[in-house]
Amino acid sequence: MSPSPPTAAGTLEALLAEGLALAERTRAALLASPSSVPASPQALLENLERSAALGVVTARVTAGVAWLLARFAVLRGELDAEEARRPAWRLLPPERLPEALGGAVDPEVLRLLRESERFYRRLDRLDAALDRADEPSH
Predict the structure, then answer these.
(1) pLDDT in tens, 84-107
(2) Does 9 fall in a domain?
(3) Contact yes or no for 94/120 (Cβ under 8 A)
(4) Who's near 20: CB < 8 A, 6+ residues apart?
(5) What is the CATH number of the domain that holds 126?
(6) 16, 73 in Cβ contact below 8 A?
(7) Is the separation of the CB atoms in 91 and 64 below 8 Å?
């Protein structure tokens, strides 16, 4: 017997769990940020680069979790599917989100940047599938 395909709700639940785990790790990274005044201009620059990178992660995760919650609302009948296709309920294209500046950030922040980008791009593909579902089949 082959395993049954995942349900929409199951897929959304797995993605939400992933997004919330990313949010928790981002919070931990933010709390681990230096709180003292940097001793040098280089240290100040490193702190700013780290903060900017974590801001990018936060933007991706927040937008992704909000999109997932809207999809759950559609499944539960709390939000009309047609309404959920309006731009206000959709993801921004990834290129419209802020990007990390580069710079030398610590390995955990780099992991968060990579993972949040993969997470957001996966959601972007699902969001685009909403449009394909509306196209007439030939």
Answers:
(1) 999 999 998 888 877 777 766 789
(2) no
(3) yes
(4) 65
(5) 1.10.8.930
(6) no
(7) yes
